Amino acid sequence: MKYDPEGRLKAADLEAGLKEHIEQLLNAFKSYTGKKYPAAYENIHVAYTHMFRVGQAMSDAIVDQFPEKFEGKKPSDMPKTGMGGISETNSSAILWSFFGFILASAVIAIIARRKSVNN
User: Fold this and answer.
1) Is 91 left (phi over 0), alpha (psi -120 to 50) or beta?
2) Would you state the pLDDT for residue 85?
3) Is the Cβ–Cβ distance between 47 and 21 less than 8 Å?
4) For the chain: N or C, fewer Cβ within 10 A?
5) How high is the pLDDT of residue 32?
6) What is the 3 state secondary structure string of 7-43?
7) Is the pTM here over 0.70, yes or no?
8) What is the pLDDT of residues 28-42, one digit of tens each?
9) Which residue has the higher pLDDT, 114 or 9?
10) Residue 8: which residues within 8 A CB-CB, separation 6 or more?
11) Distance (Å) of CA 11 to CA 23, 76, 80, 108
12) Is the CB of residue 60 less than 8 Å from the CB of residue 1?
């Protein structure tokens, strides 16, 4: 943030957080090149979660500084993405999947039996 007169997010704090993130990424890279893969994975995970918190702090400060830009922008309901739970599942799709599985199993059984008879 270029200018924040009310000190919601201090530039020095943000700089320190970004330097820490860079150190975490460098540690991950060193672990990876040293073939210490579990350590590399852990370092990447730590860097990811740390940066997520930095982003959260930045977004909180921006929303706090400019609340009028974000009023009324929150959706009242989650969008229908097609990734809902079982209650929203089309039962005919499950039925067709079940019949497809039965048909595929029958075809595999017939092929296996023919191969065993021919040998």
Assistant:
1) alpha
2) 58
3) yes
4) C
5) 93
6) CCCCHHHHHHHHHHHHHHHHHHHHHHHCCCHHHHHHH
7) no
8) 999 999 999 999 999
9) 114
10) 1, 60, 61, 64, 65
11) 18, 34, 39, 65
12) no
Separation CA 9–CA 3 (nearest Å):
10
Using alpha carbons, select from 114, 116, 8 the residue that is nearest to residue 58. 8
Residue 114 three-state SS: helix
Dist CA 93 CA 10 (whole Å): 54
How is 40-87 classified by DSSP, letter by letter? HHHHHHHHHHHHHHHHHHHHHHHHHH-GGGTTT-S-SS----S---GG
The tokens of 44 are what? 């990447």
